[in-house]
Amino acid sequence: MSDTIYIEYQFKVTPLQPGVEILIAELGYAGFESFVETDEGVTAYIQKEDWQADILSDIQILESKEFEITYAFKDIEQVNWNEEWEKNFSPIIVDNACSVRAPFHEKPNTTFDIVIEPKMSFGTGHHETTHMMIQHILKTDLKNKTVLDMGCGTGVLAILAEMKGATLIDAVDFDNWCYLNSIENVERNNCTHITVIEGDASALKNKKYDVIIANINRNILLNDMAAYAACLNKKGMLFLSGFYNEDIPLIQEECEKYMLKFEEKLERNNWVSLKFLN
User: Is the pLDDT of residue 121 over 60?
Assistant: First the structure.
């Protein structure tokens, strides 16, 4: 990736949330590959070969009167993203049980040690939502279970699910960068029960799972809840994250439409993760 030219957009968003969350979701569908949240908004990147002058024409939030969003953009030439991550990516340890680190980090003394090449994909464990999802998985018996990791990002949650004993895991992401990065990380961790799929909720047709992990954002979760419910086995577990405390009533109401029962909430810096039972 060292010779790839990117265009960087710096967005200033008021109010920050849920503005940044909605903006990231819409930019992702428009072809932007990665995002870094800032104190003022978000910085987004797209490969120059995928860019066009009207790239933001379908970004509806830019027309919303509820948010004030300004932006500037520029070419970023020949960034070596691996070097950038090596400078900025530090290992994390969740509940003294699971470590997520890059290949250049020293191996810690944890039960589960996940090695990823994060590049620009979401899901290193540093974000509150990924951290909480790891906590959920650590507490869950996945032995011989079938698992769906929806919006898999780096594949870290799918990898942990296999380490916890799951025997069939589908890791799904619509972003090509995430799809390729997940394949790389699955191989790096010697996983043999994970199938990485490039797609969205339409890829779930006729599939069934004991456990579904969906760490995406509120709007996509609400839109795809029917698909999750349809492929969740009886007595199955659904773990959701990617939203805030104030979003819980909307999420819970949608889950209850499909007879999914609220079981547990985790919270981290106003981000939340919920567990539902079928």
Answer: no
Which of 37, 64, 79 is the last residue before a domain boundary?
Answer: 79
Q: What percent of the chain has pLDDT over 90?
A: 65
Phi-psi label, residue 80: left if phi above 0, alpha if psi -120 to 50, beta otherwise: beta
Examine the pLDDT at 53 and tell me if it is beyond 50.
yes
In a domain, 261, yes or no: yes
Q: Dihedral of CA 139/103/216/158: which sign?
A: negative
In which band, very low, low, confident or very high, does the pLDDT at 103 lie, cut at 50, 70 and 90?
Answer: confident
How many Å apart are CA 258 and CA 272, to the nearest integer?
Answer: 21
Rounded-to-integer distance, Cα 46 and Cα 66, Å:
26
Domain count across the chain: 2
* Residue 79 C-alpha from the chain's centroid: 23
Token pair of 243 as six digits: 């939203």
